[in-house]
Specification:
Length: about 850
RNA sequence: GCCGAUGUGGCGAAAUGGCAGACGCAACGGACUUAAAAUCCGUUCUCGCGAAAAGCGAGGUAUGGGUUCGAAUCCCAUCAUCGGCACCA
């Protein structure tokens, strides 16, 4: 790099202040009982989504949200809050392990290196994290409690009567293993051969693994599951009171996917069994001309006839081989097989054929449907393909084609409900079914139970052992369960977890073997915000008092502001809420929700307006930016780019512009003497402010304060630029105005603000203390007001002239002044003035 | 296909019912300099009438309509881009 002279010595002052902050531990937030804890201060918990420390290091997208939260954190401290602003590492899981496998090093080693790199990068940006609270999900002192939470899930059940999680002891049924919130099931899972593990539905995108983009196939395996579906209704309802973007709430609602309808039992013709179906349109029951089971449905084996057996078996094998991708790609063409069996439509008492088809999913509803081809697109397509009868039972209100009509209309050909509009028909037929014991109203959710085990090495081991084919949870006292130091931790590829290779480790006792699956990546991040409240506690996952204090307040959610990317809208944010509710129900937490306010930062694109990626070569590394322009410029540019939540492209020119602004701030106070040393400018004097100066000082306080509160950092910076432009070239610079300005600047550019503050302190004795200890200034609305304002005069909405009026002028005075204005008179002459609208202090509109 | 977000100068953007383009970038001109960089000052939406400047007029916030004295902002329709879901019965 050329030895261009730096516009101001950021390369010296930035490390200097970072060292001072660290030495004095200025951003440590004391808990109750610690020294310097002030119970009079209100708490403010502001949280970033902690990163996966990948090998690539930080890119400029990470610090966008982090800078926003840091500004708020520093601002809130100056406003007298006790601010919890922590950082940690989400270091278990697939990305870390894939990287380790690629680089040939043990994940523990690469994780340690990556954490060190991320931490040093974050420190260079000057974030005011309380590093005493740093946590790492791969630390046994941390994952001990992740395992402990798993035990809480294992040892509890969801009581539908109380609508709460309760200790398993309160369960009165025979087999508690059927209701535990953590349970084992043989289920068709998303198996990714390349990654050697199963994945959660949420981790599969378009039939490929979210990480790596490898093919994923369906395959039945014995897995640990978490009964999140029991909480579907609460996860839905309790969204309402959260201050989250509506879009994110909607994503979660859609993911949970609640539908109201009915469950209806169809008798099998000539058999004892019943097949239960779920439908949102029980009013179309009379139109049910056939029935479809999911190919994997357990009743298929029992009902299939001799002659149809080969065709059914062939079809089932074919669908089982299909990956999710194929199943959706081939969705245009319906497939299926006839079982040879018949069911009785409970409304019409007609015999209808039972088919299997892969457009019916085992995991949703009851895994079976009554086919109503006239009023369902998919059923219609299926019926046409296989030549099944189509019977209209809903009459559209408009002139639409009744066949394939899926909207609401009037029930026809349905004796029990003929003539009723759809909604009423639904109510009536549901009642009709209930009276006859044929069905009942029901609610179904798209949300599935959470597949919680992974066949990998780099994750939390389960605190579970197996004894004569049965699982048993370990006692709390046996935690943490530490994984063995395996040399060969690569996935086996067979579905057997790598931990199975540790022959000594898995032998728990003569009778018992350890569970060899590990928990998924999301486990550690599900509760890390709780651990931050009390990270050193080795008696409890979080101390009661600490949790009450930091997660307290009068809203349902504990964290006051949570900033992170939209990509976690349904994964992390849903899982966290689920765990939180379980822990809350069991009496371990004081609030039902983790995060009160959520803000998503937008993605930062490369200079070419494309998503940053290695292959495009458009990645910007924060270290390079800081080398050239300094951390303060980096921070300010990240915020000046545009609204926080918006997607926006990076621009090095833009960084330069912001760096110029900071250099102007520096030179406003400092000048270079003949020995090329920086010294305080003689223009800085202890003098009173002129009226115009006072006005701009107070306008800047107002704008910056309000903009920080509304997270509009870009316009806050613009206002500070206006301030500097206004004071540049002033003959004398009142020290009080500069002090106020530096306080406002401090959350954005803390290094330069601290340094200049120190320079002022060295010469002027008017104020004591460090920059970071100063109180946030307040503004006086009276000092903002000008004596005179310019008022725009419009004729028919078009600006025709302006005039200066006293701020005190009445509406009447403004009106007559406008009408007397010669230009306006000229323009309105010969016309009748019909109306005059006066907006005080702003404008007059003459309607002629 | 369904749901959601966004659309304003050469570029990032501001203004959320009252002067469109604050602030910054870029470009151009000037000052300083032997020169350059840096810095400081100024100009820059489009078209028309002015020799030119000042000035004046008209148009302009994706497109077409509407509400209103007044619309980037509210309503309806269309188009484009981005994101999510996608046989969920």
């Amino acid at each position: 790099m050329s030895e261009r002279r730096k516009p101001y010595p950021f390369d010296q002052i930035e490390p200097k202040w970072q060292t001072i902050w660290e030495e004095r531990q200025m951003f440590h937030a004391p808990n109750a009982g610690e020294k310097n804890f002030d119970p009079a201060k209100p708490k403010f918990y502001i949280l970033d989504m902690f990163p996966y420390p990948s090998g690539a290091g930080l890119h400029v997208g990470h610090p966008e949200g982090y800078t926003a939260t840091d500004i708020i954190a520093r601002y809130k401290r100056m406003r007298g809050c006790n601010v919890l602003h922590p950082m940690g590492w989400d270091a278990f899981g697939l990305p870390a392990e894939q990287y380790a496998i690629k680089s040939g090093q043990h994940p523990a080693v690469t994780t340690r290196e990556n954490v060190a790199k991320f931490k040093s990068q974050l420190k260079r940006i000057g974030f005011s994290y309380d590093w005493q609270r740093e946590i790492n999900t791969t630390d046994p002192r941390y994952y001990k409690w992740t395992q402990w939470i798993f035990l809480q899930l294992y040892n509890s059940w969801f009581n539908p009567k109380t609508n709460k999680a309760e200790p398993i002891k309160s369960y009165r049924g025979k087999n508690p293993d059927e209701v535990r919130l953590a349970y084992v099931a043989d289920v068709p899972v998303n198996w990714c051969a390349e990654l050697g593990t199963v994945l959660a539905n949420e981790e599969v995108v378009d039939g490929k693994s979210e990480i790596g983009g490898f093919p994923v196939v369906r395959r039945p395996m014995r897995q640990w599951m978490l009964r999140i579906t029991k909480f579907a209704q609460r996860l839905l309802d309790e969204l309402d009171a959260l201050d989250w973007p509506e879009g994110i709430k909607l994503l979660q609602r859609n993911w949970i996917g609640r539908s109201e309808g009915a469950e209806i039992d169809f008798k099998i013709d000539g058999g004892q069994q019943k097949i239960r179906v779920f439908t949102t349109r029980p009013d179309t029951l009379y139109g049910g001309t056939y029935m479809v089971l999911a190919p994997e449905h357990s009743l298929v084996d029992l009902i299939v006839t001799e002659e149809q057996w080969p065709a059914v078996r062939e079809y089932r094998e074919r669908t089982a081989r299909k990956s999710d991708l194929e199943r959706t790609e081939l969705s245009k063409e319906k497939t299926g097989a006839f079982t040879g069996a018949y069911a009785i439509n409970p409304a019409t008492d007609e015999k209808i054929p039972i088919w299997i088809a892969d457009y019916v999913l085992l995991g949703y509803g009851t895994g079976a449907i009554g086919g109503v081809p006239a009023h369902d697109e998919r059923d219609l397509e299926f019926a046409r393909k296989f030549d099944l009868p189509i019977r209209q039972v809903v009459q559209p209100l408009g002139g639409e084609d009744p066949i394939g009509f899926i909207g609401e209309g009037i029930a026809i050909n349905s004796p029990a409900i003929d003539g009723l509009p759809s909604r009423e028909a639904i109510r009536k037929i549901t009642q009709w079914l209930e009276e006859r014991g044929l069905g009942k109203g029901a609610i179904s959710y798209k949300l599935r139970d959470w597949l919680f085990s992974r066949q990998r090495y780099w994750g939390e081991p389960f605190p579970v052992v197996w004894e004569s084919g049965k699982h048993r949870a370990l006692d709390e006292s046996e935690l943490p369960v530490v994984p063995p130091p395996l040399d060969d931790y690569k996935p086996t590829g067979t579905g057997e977890p790598p931990l199975a290779k540790a022959k000594d480790w898995i032998r728990y006792s003569d009778e018992a073997l350890r569970e060899t699956n590990v928990m998924p990546q999301w486990a550690g991040s599900c509760w890390y915000y709780l651990r931050f409240c009390d990270p050193q506690n080795d008696k409890r996952f979080v101390g009661e008092k600490a949790e009450k204090y930091w997660m307290g307040g009068n809203k349902p959610g504990g964290v006051d502001l949570y900033v992170g990317g939209t990509e976690h809208a349904v994964l992390h944010l849903l899982y966290s809420r689920f765990w939180h509710k379980v822990l809350f129900d069991l009496g371990n937490l004081s609030k039902p929700e983790p995060f009160q306010r959520l803000v998503n930062q937008g993605i930062i694109l490369g200079e070419d307006n494309q998503k940053m990626s290695k292959s495009r070569g458009n990645i910007v590394n924060p270290d390079d930016v800081i080398d050239q322009y300094g951390a303060d410029a980096f921070r300010c540019y990240e915020m000046f780019m545009g609204p926080l939540e918006q997607m926006k492209p990076w621009s090095m020119r833009g960084v330069e512009g912001v760096a110029r602004f900071l250099a102007r701030v520096w030179r406003l106070l400092m000048r270079e003497n003949q020995a090329s040393e920086w010294e305080l400018s003689p223009a800085v004097q202890d003098v009173d402010l002129m009226k115009a100066q006072q006005r701009i000082v107070h306008a800047t306080i107002k704008k910056v304060t309000e903009d920080i509160e509304s997270l509009s950092f870009n316009t806050a910076i613009a206002q500070m630029m206006i301030f500097v432009n206004a004071f540049t070239n002033a003959e004398s610079l009142p020290v009080s105005a500069l002090r106020t300005f530096l306080i406002l600047l401090n959350p954005f550019a803390p290094h330069i603000a601290s340094e200049l503050w120190e320079k002022l302190n060295a010469k002027f004795k008017d104020v004591r203390g460090d920059m970071a200890e100063q109180a946030w200034p307040t503004y006086d609305e009276r000092l903002l007001a000008e004596d005179e304002v310019e008022i725009v005069i419009q004729v028919n909405g078009k600006v025709r002239d302006r005039m200066k009026m006293s701020i005190l002028a009445t509406e009447e005075e403004i009106k007559s002044a406008a009408l007397e204005n010669p230009r306006i008179r000229e323009l309105t002459s010969g016309r009748t003035i019909r109306k005059v609208i006066v907006v005080p202090k702003k404008l007059v509109n003459v309607v002629a």
